[in-house]
Amino acid sequence: MNQTKHGIAEKLIGSPYESMDERTKKVARHITERKHISRDTSKELDDSITFGQRAADAVAKFRGSWSFIMLFAITLVFWVILNSYILINYDKTFDPYPYILLNLFLSMLASIQAPIILMSQNRQGEKDRLNADHDYEVNLKAELEIMLLHEKIDALRTEQWNELIAIQKEQLILLGNLLDKNQD
CA 63, CA 68: separation in Å to the nearest integer? Predict the structure, then answer.
């Protein structure tokens, strides 16, 4: 039975089963066993996600939103207004004009935020690779299934042509017999 499966796979793909890569062997097995290949890749990846990865995704999602931008802008404006208010009323500031303390906080925020966003992007890249691999498998299987359908249709057409030719031969024989009877 395996030889038949390997033979079908080799015929469709055009290379020996042993020389195929794992993805192609998987597709070949799914075709010969008549099993579906589609699956939910996001669920596979989400099942194995760690707490840190979930946190990195949440941080990256929030930091890449308009809510964060607006909240950040409001915080910066509030900082400047508070500093200006203290300067006007008390002739002192807790962070003088070039806002060195604010720059320090922004630098610390950026230094923490950058690796977290990179972790999230790495995970997204992993998801994209998994989806691309899955898409390749599904597309290859669909292509091979279409090839099988073409072969079946060609076989049916050939069979129908043979039947039509046989019927025509029969009709010609009957017609010849009728002509022979009419000539007698």
Answer: 6
